[in-house]
Amino acid sequence: xxxxxxxxxxxxxxxxxxxxxxxxxxxxxxxxxxxxxxxxxxxxxxxxxxxxxxxxxxxxxxxxxxxxxxxxxxxxxxxxxxxxxxxxxxxxxxxxxxxxxxxxxxxxxxxxxxxxxxxxxxxxxxxxxxxxxxxxxxxxxxxxxxxxxxxxxxxxxxxxxxxxxxxxxxxxxxxxxxxxxxxxxxxxxxxxxxxxxxxxxxxxxxx
Length: 207
Ligand code: PRP
Ligand code: URA
What we know:
8-stranded mixed β-sheet, 15 strands, Rossmann fold, alpha/beta, binds uracil, binds 1-O-pyrophosphono-5-O-phosphono-alpha-D-ribofuranose, about 30% helix, 3-stranded parallel β-sheet
């Protein structure tokens, strides 16, 4: 299952973050802002419990989130979305998966993994701005499932049909929330039109 968040506020910000003229400071701000909208949508059906709250006037029947939220950025670009999730869910726990794409093969190479124990019982949110071939996202889901997770959603900013299909074939139980489903992957496995190398644009490491 995937959800394209087509809200004008998200699409407006997407138009700016894609622009080659947008520098790393603004790129980082926009990644945070877009992530907040995507996270809001992704948590729409999260488990809640009924609670009674004493207001100054009477008792109100309210709802509170009833699951541990564990957010898992894929290093390094996923870290650029972390502040956006924590602004919305300040009590979220954070795990990390270190993966990079081999420049020749575009296959994910794993170099780090650290999860809180709550991945087993809570709701895990994998964040990475780009879901291209889907290799990195699939590897992150595999790691989380190996650690005992059974409730996983993915939030990305831009994806493409190839990446969506790859994740949906391997992990049909995992929902993907995105702001854009682009046209295709080019010969270097970059998303077209995409927004370029998300890590480089976030951290100012390109030329
Ligand atoms: C980028 C991106 C994803 C991955 C997507 O990371 O942030 O993790 O590529 O591609 P895929 O869907 O084909 O796996 P990259 O490997 O460039 O590492 P970085 O975040 O350290 O820049
Ligand atoms: N990684 C990126 O940062 N951008 C792409 O388009 C594909 C993979």
